[in-house]
From TrEMBL:
Highest taxon of source: Bacteria
Residue intervals of the N-acetyltransferase domain: 17-218
Source organism: Roseospira navarrensis
Keyword flag S-adenosyl-L-methionine: no
Molecular function GO labels: acyltransferase activity, transferring groups other than amino-acyl groups
Protein name as annotated: GNAT family N-acetyltransferase
Span of domain CN hydrolase: 237-494
Length: 526
């Protein structure tokens, strides 16, 4: 008997088009879609797409047809004054990272919508705009604002004389623009023209129509505000640091027992994170109990890369803790030598951050090269970033990670004497202040004879905060005794961080002059 149209079998055979919240697994598909829509423009980097989700996950949507992403919509919240002031796309979106997302903003800003050209007849754009409106109403916001393209302006500018006159002509239905007319049919009202909004948009001559949709259900009472903050801003994160003493070990197993001891200790205190120092695995070079030439040291260490990852991942899962695994110099298959921090999360996943800025000593002794990507890592406590020692002395890297959503920056470090240590310490404190984030430092102490560039160590590991009312008086949540092997803990309140960013004595992130400067990371490298 043939199945009728209402049978489950018939339903399963029908094409399915759904619109849902974007997820991390969609990033590659969204980038591919971006290439199809804008073949002459570099697509959003993975870091940028992660930033959209990490700043405001509920405002990002994908349209999926039979398992293929065919539409993308990016949105964030913003205050009314910023939304209605003259602006460019780069200024308002924080360089395309949604970095100006304001968790208490009373308007939604439409940052991006694009649809696969092969699916133009499926009304996907209309579906995505409907999702935005539904989100706006669910949060009780005033409405939606954005800059809309004017793709027919270039052909008609001579006839109408100006961008303003062109928008008015379309508004009066004397002319038709494929984008602006569509926006108006969807209830968006032009309230002006944004000059130099997107200079690369040649068809629009860089202009955009300043568009607004006012929420007809707005009552003056947001269901958002403080209660709508990210779930990560409403919890306390317990962080532990290990000030680790370098000493001779006789085997990798002995090294593993040392590491497990500290993981066990901090897990007993229910820590969410434990941080080990930069280059803490150079201790493995002492197994031979003889001086190993620098040319052979990296090859020796590379043999331990997989065992190290397996060790840290096993401990992270077994002890239910996220491990920031210091750093480990490794030679890749391409022959490049990199200084890598392996981040092993308690869900079993393993991530890595390559040191971006090798020191002169690293380049001299081991020919270490710098990485190219600085990307946040999503954890069960929210997005984090890692800066390995010298990286903390470059403010651009910290700002790039914070723009992607990082609230805690981990800095495994290795310094030989006090002056070197203080460079890292002072710079890390500056990063905490200027980015209104927590910065966590963990360093080595002790001596390691017969290992080049690790003869002596100096450290005073610490957990740093912004310098404002909700935090510790000196901006130090926890400190250690210099040059003594020990652990330290601090409970970091994400709510305090959110409050400082929104209404602190100073508001460094909110008060940035996007009209004057920005951190522009190479989009091809992340």
């Amino acid at each position: 008997m043939a199945a009728d149209d209402t049978s489950p079998a018939a339903d399963e055979q029908k094409p399915r088009l759904i619109v849902r919240q974007a997820a991390a697994e969609d990033i590659d598909s969204v980038r591919g879609l971006c290439r199809r829509v804008y073949p002459d423009v570099a697509p959003y980097s993975p870091a940028a797409l992660r930033a959209h989700q990490q700043h405001f996950a509920e405002g990002q949507f994908v349209a999926v047809y039979e398992g293929e992403v065919v539409g993308y919509c990016a949105t964030f919240r913003i205050a009314e004054a910023a939304a209605f002031a003259p602006h460019t796309w780069t200024e308002i979106t924080g360089g395309g990272l949604a970095a100006r997302h304001d968790a208490e903003g009373d308007w939604l800003y439409g940052m991006e919508v694009f649809v696969d050209p092969a699916f133009q007849g499926f009304r996907i754009g209309q579906r995505l705009y409907s999702q935005r409106k539904a989100l706006c109403q669910r949060l009780g916001l005033k409405g939606i604002v954005f800059g809309g393209r004017l793709p027919a302006l270039q052909r008609r500018i001579k006839k109408v004389g100006s961008a303003e006159a062109y928008v008015q002509a379309v508004r009066d239905r004397k002319m038709r623009d494929p984008v602006l007319s569509f926006q108006m049919r969807n209830g968006f009202e032009p309230i002006g023209v944004l000059e130099n909004y997107l200079p690369s948009d040649k068809e629009s001559l860089g202009y955009a129509a300043h568009l607004v949709w006012r929420n007809p259900k707005y009552s003056g009472q947001q269901s958002g505000g403080r209660t709508a903050r990210s779930r990560y801003s409403q919890r306390t994160v317990r962080v532990s640091i290990v000030q680790y003493q370098q000493r001779r070990v006789r085997s990798f197993e002995e090294f593993g027992h040392n590491i497990e001891y500290f993981v066990d200790v901090v897990a007993d205190y229910r820590s969410d994170f434990v941080v080990f120092p930069e280059l803490f695995t150079l201790q493995l070079l002492s197994i031979e109990n003889q001086r190993i030439p620098a040319s052979d040291a990296i090859a020796t260490l590379t043999r331990y890369t997989e065992p190290l990852k397996e060790l840290l991942s096993r401990l992270a899962v077994s002890y239910n803790i996220n491990i920031i695994g210091g750093s480990h110099p490794t030679m890749g298959e391409d022959g490049k030598i990199l200084n890598i921090c392996y981040v092993c999360l308690r869900d079993g996943s393993v991530h890595q951050q390559v040191k971006i800025h090798p020191t002169p000593n690293e380049r001299f002794w081991w020919n270490i090269e710098g990485g190219a990507a600085a990307q946040t890592i999503m954890t069960d406590c929210g997005p984090i970033g890692v800066m390995i020692c010298y990286d903390s002395e470059f403010p651009e890297m910290a700002r790039h990670l914070v723009d992607q959503g990082a609230q805690i920056l981990f800095v495994p470090f290795c310094t030989d004497e006090r002056q070197s240590y203080l460079r890292v310490r002072y710079c890390a404190q500056a990063r905490a202040v200027e980015n209104q984030c927590y910065v966590v430092l963990s360093g080595n102490v002790g001596n390691l004879p017969n290992v080049e560039n690790m003869d002596i160590q100096y450290a005073q590991s610490c957990i740093l905060t912004p310098c404002d009312m909700p935090f510790a008086r000196d901006g130090i949540a926890a400190d250690t005794t210099p040059n003594v092997e020990m652990v330290a803990f601090a409970d970091l309140r994400m709510e305090d961080l959110a409050a400082a960013r929104q209404s602190g004595t100073v508001q460094n992130l909110r008060d940035r002059r996007f009209d004057l400067y920005s951190v522009a990371w190479n989009s091809r490298k992340g």
